[in-house]
Design goal:
GO terms for molecular function: chitin binding; chitinase activity. InterPro entries: Chitinase_II/V-like_cat, Chitinase_insertion_sf, GH, Glyco_hydro18_cat, Glyco_hydro_18_chit_AS, Glycosyl_Hydrlase_18. It is built from 9 helices and 14 strands. With 352 residues, the chain is of the alpha/beta class. It has 2 domains: 274 residues, TIM Barrel; 57 residues, Chitinase A, domain 3, CATH 3.10.50.10. α5 links the parallel β5 and β6.
């Protein structure tokens, strides 16, 4: 039986000026994703500026030369990219082919070990069918390129919704699990953003492992992928290094689900290092919530739901008990002195 070494990954935001690849502690990770590249919305090719090209080269060279080295992938898309761009590209065999060949070329030219697609999100059943086709053809192209160049095949992964289907959306759709299981190396399930600024009426655990009141939870989402036929060794759990914030209606009613009136500090989002700073400066009360496996803090009317070392460790143990391949963080530079990233290294043990 093939062994599947554990994945301990993180996305590196390329716009982070204070956090160059040289600052990454590679003892804590196995794979680092460069976030993000976008193809042209006209040609569907990657048309890279000189500054992006040198950034890519520096990223792979630096991380491959570190001790220990880590594998590098570039991620295509991201939360702020236009889902219609991917829908158009994926809808036609010609444009899929151009996109795939250009992605492989970028990976080889700049020394990457693989590619990741972060299409957020396919909007309807047709998009999902086209995505399945894209993955299938991408895998064939990767194998063909590896054979003709006598090199190891490039990795192919995708960042996906926390659940296999969008059962809470106006348009129901489901990921092409069969194509994913056959074509990808693994999926990065984005197990966060369950609650946020789009609903300011109540606080929420935005990355709850369990939700006693709904299926919008990490345990439900990850299990749905496995039930849909994606093997456990191909599922990687996402962990947020940031919190969501609200302004409480009444400072004395301050649990998860407490009435709120607006977004809180940081316009609704604080990265983990900022959460720590806020808690310290405001003498915030910090509460670990065992029911949802999450942490929250409050000071006056400000409320923050996030994951700390304890909730992260519990989640990683859950992923391990479920037999998943590992975990990834969004995003690398949001941690505070590697506090949370270290938890994973300590608590995730690969089965022999």
């Amino acid at each position: 039986m093939a062994s599947h070494p554990a994945i301990k990954a993180a996305y590196w935001p390329s716009w982070s000026e204070t956090f160059p690849p040289s600052a990454v502690d590679t003892t804590l990770f196995t794979h680092i994703f460069y976030a993000f590249l976008l193809p042209s919305n006209v040609t569907f090719k990657f048309e890279l500026s000189d500054s992006t090209a040198s950034l890519l080269k520096n990223f792979t060279t630096t991380l491959h030369q570190k001790n220990p080295p880590v594998k590098t992938l570039f991620s295509v898309g991201g939360g702020s990219s236009d889902p219609k761009l991917f829908a158009r590209m994926a809808s036609n065999v010609g444009s899929r082919n151009i996109f795939i060949n250009s992605a492989i070329e970028v990976a080889r030219n700049y020394g990457f070990d693989g590619m990741d697609l972060d299409w957020e999100f396919p909007q309807n059943p047709k998009d999902m069918a086209d995505l399945g086709q894209l993955f299938k053809e991408w895998r064939v192209a990767i194998q063909k390129e590896a054979r003709s160049t006598h090199r190891s095949p490039l990795l192919l992964t995708a960042a996906v919704y926390f659940s296999v289907d969008f059962q809470w959306a106006e348009t129901y759709r489901k990921y092409p699990a069969a194509s994913i299981a056959k074509s990808l190396d693994w999926i990065n399930a984005m197990c966060f953003d369950y609650h946020g600024s789009w609903d300011t009426s109540a606080t929420g655990a935005h990355a709850a492992l369990y939700d006693p009141n709904s299926n919008i939870s990490t345990s439900y989402g990850l299990t749905s992928w496995i039930r849909a036929g994606v093997p456990r060794h191909m599922v990687v759990m996402g962990l947020p290094l940031y919190g969501k914030t609200w302004q409480l209606k009444d400072p004395n009613v301050n649990g998860i689900g407490a009435p709120a009136v607006a977004t809180g500090p940081g316009d609704g989002v604080l990265v983990f290092s900022e959460v720590e700073k806020f808690n310290k400066e405001n003498g915030a009360t910090v509460v670990y919530d065992a029911r949802t496996v999450s942490t929250y803090s409050y000071a006056g009317t400000s409320w923050i739901g996030y994951d700390d070392s304890r909730s992260t460790t519990m989640k990683i143990k859950f992923a391990q008990a479920l037999g998943l391949r590992g975990y990834f963080f969004w995003a690398l530079s949001f941690d505070s002195e590697w506090k949370i990233s270290k938890q994973g290294k300590l608590s995730y043990r690969q089965e022999p």
